[in-house]
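Researcher: Quick test of sequence recovery. Tokens follow.
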């Protein structure tokens, strides 16, 4: 009985610990993300600082503000909203801006809840973030006009967020999903095996319960693949074929189940969120070909 109780306590603690580090992770400091992008050559510091931009704060339906930057583009009616990845910031989205600015799009980049200068007590891995993205679309529609064209681009967790958002918001014209996870459960199952050498069962079962207590949802509800059949908009899936963090099989599964207009680009030799860095020319060409294909 004592051994059983000790095992139960150990499982409960592991579930609590995994939930805590997942939903309240240690984010890369905001200004450091800028320095990292500059050092990697993904942000031209002089160019970025000289760009005409407006710092904006968008009200989330959950009460906090989402901090971001708005880049207007000659009164264009087209806008791209770019969503960054887990534990990072909007500066991770800057590298993608230029290709859309050249195609006449306004740009909105912003920090997810619990990231950068945005509010929020925790990260929900896309569950509440999809509603924050909807608030960003509301803001763009008020700013540009209800008849404006809005597309989304997401990286990693931002890509999963963009997909789950598209399933509930038909105002979006298209989605570009760069290295999304197909579901939180499958992603955590993968990370548990890689980082902790632990099986999904029973550890994720306990973590799932603590997640429900923490953010009032289960893992099954944080799942792009569960709602992929509801996404009617064209989707471009991008994934590094050497991604060790989120395996490329996640995008392959999503692509296979997506109905309607879809494209899959596997970046040769790219690890997680490295497709743009590995081959910028081919990345831009793939995006432009996709945009041309949907008019």
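Model:
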């Amino acid at each position: 009985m004592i051994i059983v109780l000790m095992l139960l306590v150990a499982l409960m603690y592991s579930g609590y610990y995994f939930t805590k580090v997942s939903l309240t992770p240690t984010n890369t400091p905001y200004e450091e993300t800028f320095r990292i992008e500059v050092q990697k050559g993904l942000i031209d510091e002089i160019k970025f600082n000289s760009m005409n931009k407006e710092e904006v704060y968008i009200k989330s339906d959950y009460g906090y503000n989402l901090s971001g930057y708005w880049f207007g583009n000659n009164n264009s009616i087209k806008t791209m909203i770019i969503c960054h990845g887990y534990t990072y910031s909007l500066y991770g989205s800057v590298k993608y801006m230029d290709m859309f600015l050249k195609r006449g799009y306004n740009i909105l980049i912003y920090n997810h809840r619990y990231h950068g200068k945005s509010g929020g007590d925790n990260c929900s891995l896309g569950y509440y973030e999809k509603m924050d993205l909807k608030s960003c679309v509301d803001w763009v529609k008020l700013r540009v006009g209800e008849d404006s064209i809005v597309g989304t681009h997401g990286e990693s967790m931002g890509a999963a967020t963009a997909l789950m958002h598209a399933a509930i918001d038909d105002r979006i014209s298209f989605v570009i999903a760069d290295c999304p996870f197909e579901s939180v459960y499958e992603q955590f199952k993968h990370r548990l095996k890689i980082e902790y050498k632990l099986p999904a069962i029973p550890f994720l079962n306990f973590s799932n319960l603590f997640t429900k207590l923490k953010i009032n949802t289960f893992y099954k509800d944080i799942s792009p693949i569960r709602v992929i059949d509801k996404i009617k908009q064209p989707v471009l899936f991008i994934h590094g074929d050497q991604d060790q963090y989120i395996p490329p099989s996640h995008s392959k599964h999503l692509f296979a189940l997506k109905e309607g207009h879809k494209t899959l680009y596997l970046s040769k030799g790219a690890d997680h969120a490295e497709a743009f860095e590995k081959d910028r020319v081919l990345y831009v060409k793939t995006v432009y070909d996709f945009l041309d294909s949907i008019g």
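The radius of gyration is 19 Å.
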